[in-house]
């Protein structure tokens, strides 16, 4: 149940269209339901202003489908992250409204579109093409929560002129998510160019000494650009949710 549903319910009680006992029966579905394989949170949209999210990695198709069906049953949208193509196709075959984005490894069922946030676009920037899958996870998450991504891909420090051509876009963004592997230098550069929040995402892209993303992580944590926020390695989802929390109208 999201805030729009609660407001509508209370308004119907206020106008006498719905009896108090009927409204109470609806609210008794909150805040969760145990379906055996999972305890599904029906209260998240009301608390945090975003749909429930299923972490798909390690879950079976049966488990994911059961959780999706329970969330949709109460009229909520749902986002699923970290699902490989074969699993995504299997879920789509059983849940016709399931929309799968293979590059992002995410899927969603939209019961009702999220309310659009009264903020500008969120720039999603990658250092290289190899970082795009993580960027797409961030972009798809932003779309699921009512924020608009502006994709700016393959503009890393190895060819800095590519980034400088996009500075106006960066400065007009409400926040910037910067995704980089290797030495992870790009967030520092972007952090020195814009005043808006910068959220850095280290990726596990790079040769041996990149240490599966730890080199980029340490570099971003010690950025000389003040106030750059760093999320976990390969966490495009985490970066999008950080932007959600930072910006106005998050609940």
From TrEMBL:
<protein>
    <submittedName>
        <fullName>Circadian phase modifier</fullName>
    </submittedName>
</protein>
<dbReference type="GO" id="GO:0006189">
    <property type="term" value="P:'de novo' IMP biosynthetic process"/>
</dbReference>
<dbReference type="Pfam" id="PF00731">
    <property type="entry name" value="AIRC"/>
</dbReference>
<keyword id="KW-0812">Transmembrane</keyword>
<keyword id="KW-0472">Membrane</keyword>
<keyword id="KW-1133">Transmembrane helix</keyword>
<dbReference type="GO" id="GO:0016787">
    <property type="term" value="F:hydrolase activity"/>
</dbReference>
<feature type="domain" description="PurE">
    <location>
        <begin position="120"/>
        <end position="247"/>
    </location>
</feature>
<dbReference type="InterPro" id="IPR039476">
    <property type="entry name" value="P2CMN_synthase_LarB"/>
</dbReference>
<dbReference type="InterPro" id="IPR000031">
    <property type="entry name" value="PurE_dom"/>
</dbReference>
<feature type="transmembrane region" description="Helical">
    <location>
        <begin position="205"/>
        <end position="231"/>
    </location>
</feature>
<feature type="transmembrane region" description="Helical">
    <location>
        <begin position="173"/>
        <end position="199"/>
    </location>
</feature>
């Amino acid at each position: 149940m999201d805030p729009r549903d609660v407001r509508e319910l209370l308004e119907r009680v206020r106008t006498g269209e719905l009896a108090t006992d009927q409204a109470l029966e609806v609210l008794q579905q909150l805040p969760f339901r145990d379906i055996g394989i999972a305890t599904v949170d029906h209260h998240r949209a009301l608390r945090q202003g975003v749909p429930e999210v299923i972490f798909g990695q390690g879950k079976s198709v049966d488990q994911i489908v059961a959780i999706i069906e329970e969330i949709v049953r109460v009229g909520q949208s749902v986002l699923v992250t970290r699902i490989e193509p074969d699993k995504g196709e299997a879920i789509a075959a059983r849940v016709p409204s399931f929309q799968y984005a293979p590059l992002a490894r995410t899927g969603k069922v939209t019961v009702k579109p999220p309310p659009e946030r009264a903020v500008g676009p969120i720039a999603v920037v990658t250092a290289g093409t190899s970082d795009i899958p993580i960027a797409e996870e961030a972009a798809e998450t932003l779309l699921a929560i009512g924020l608009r991504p502006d994709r700016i891909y393959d503009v890393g420090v190895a060819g800095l002129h590519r980034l400088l051509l996009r500075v106006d876009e960066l400065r007009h963004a409400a926040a910037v998510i910067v995704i980089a592997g290797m030495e992870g230098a790009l967030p520092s550069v972007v952090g020195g160019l814009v005043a808006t929040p910068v959220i850095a995402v280290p990726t596990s892209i790079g040769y041996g000494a990149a240490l599966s993303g730890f080199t980029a992580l340490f570099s971003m944590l010690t950025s000389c650009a003040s106030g750059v926020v760093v999320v976990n390695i390969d966490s495009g989802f985490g970066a999008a949710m950080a932007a959600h929390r930072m910006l106005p109208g998050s609940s």
